[in-house]
Amino acid sequence: MLALHHLESMNDQTDTLLHVSRAAMACDFEVRFPAGGGEECVALALRALELLEPLEQQLSVFRPDSELSRINLLAAERPVRVEPGLFRLLQRAVELSNETDGALDVTAEPLWRLWGFARREGRLPTEGQIAEALGRVGSRYVRLDPTEQTVSLTRPGVQLNLGCFGKGYAVDRLAEKLEEGGLGDFLLHGGQSSVLARGTGGQATQGTPDSEGDSPNFAAQNLGQSPGWIVGLPDPRLPDRRIAEIRLRDKALGTSSSQFQSFRHAGKRYGHILDPRSGRPAEGVLSATAVAPDATQADALSTAFYVLGPEASLRYCRRRPEIGLLMLLAPQGGGKMEILSAGLGDDELRLIE
After folding, report:
1. Within 10 Å of residue 135's Cβ, how many Cβ atoms?
2. Quick one: CA dihedral 186, 189, 195, 196, positive or negative?
3. pLDDT of residue 202
4. Within 13 A of 307's CA, how many CA atoms are on the CB side?
5. Which H helix or E strand runs over 230?
6. d(CA 4, CA 46)
7. Is the pLDDT of residue 126 over 50?
8. The pTM is what?
9. Closest among 263, 100, 104, 72 to 168, alpha carbons compared
10. 27 has which bridge partners?
11. Contacts of 299 (CB under 8 A, 6+ apart)
12. Structural domain of residue 79, as residue ranges?
């Protein structure tokens, strides 16, 4: 389903924005751009959004005939040749798993299903069940042959899930299509939790959080005088309240939070973002936002930072100055929520009291 909307400018210095959207991957993908490009830009945005169906057909574990499902079915028995773009994505997944000490792992599918999050029916597994599932988790079980462009799973029962990459990867692919068509000033998001910006930016109106609560809002305020698109981040405890604004220019942003996808057992809350190393839900972080050169990396790192927690995430950012971080930590002992940031300049980040 496609939708086309007109956004009136927020002030006299900002062009009217158009936004074109399409539902895919259980969310809405949207392109926003200045209206000055006319019908050609609208047609280009519509063509870019048409990529979503084949991408979902390739990446979804919920479609039994997807390319990823085919890998999960066959790759433990024999090498499976995959499309070059998917092969490169799997290479990045293994690289990021190694860089984050296993906090991000595309083989965590058995854990995700064990805890019931695949069907949004959370349940508490036994220690024995967690140990058994952990025996089938680890990027070391993924063998990639760059010459043959094949993937093998070296242990029976290993299953891939690209959920922490999928929206960001789709956003990057759509952005490539837009840029190839000559559009150089736009903001593109998938479910509002994965955002990519190109060009000097227009003024964007406040968005609506998606069903998972991971979504930044698009802000109407200015953040200094620098050019770029302004993205507002909601308070994960009060999604209608914006807690920060980040200016994006030729960068991407990903946000992860489990505040709205969780279950309770015996008075304890269990969120849907799992630590692949322990087999249990990550704790202590309310939300983690990563800013990176591309949406695939931002999407993945937001999940990794949520799992790693503050100290390890800050160390990661110190080693990679191109990466930005904004992390909201759960209050301890009735205290206030703590906000940590790294790699974001004064003209890129504004905290809102």
Report:
1. 13
2. negative
3. 53
4. 24
5. strand 229-235
6. 9
7. yes
8. 0.89
9. 104
10. 24
11. 164, 165, 166, 167, 168, 169, 171, 193, 194, 252, 254, 290
12. 67-163
Domain count, the chain: 1
pLDDT: is 235 or 203 the higher one?
235
Question: Dihedral sign, CA of 320, 323, 326, 329?
Answer: negative
C-alpha R_g of the chain: 20
**Three-state secondary-structure class, residue 48:** helix
Helices (H), the chain: 38-49, 52-59, 67-74, 84-99, 109-114, 127-134, 163-180, 295-308, 310-319
Task: Specify the pLDDT at position 15.
Answer: 59
323 within some domain: no
- Rounded to the nearest 5 degrees, what angle is found at the Cα of 200, between the Cα atoms of 198 and 203? 100
Tell me whether residue 248 is in a domain: no
Domain assignment present for 150: yes
Residue-level pLDDT at 298: 98
Average pLDDT over residues 163-185: 96
CB 123 within 8 A of CB 69: no
Confidence of residue 201 (pLDDT cuts 50, 70, 90): confident
Q: What is the CATH number of the domain that holds 101?
A: 1.10.3980.10
pLDDT at 168 over 50: yes
- Over the stretch 78-124, which tens digit does the pLDDT of each residue have? 999 999 999 999 999 999 999 999 999 999 999 999 998 877 788 89
Question: Pairing state of beta strands 186-190 and 150-153?
Answer: unpaired
Answer whether 226's CB lies under 8 Å from 209's CB: no
Is residue 32 domain-resident?
A: no
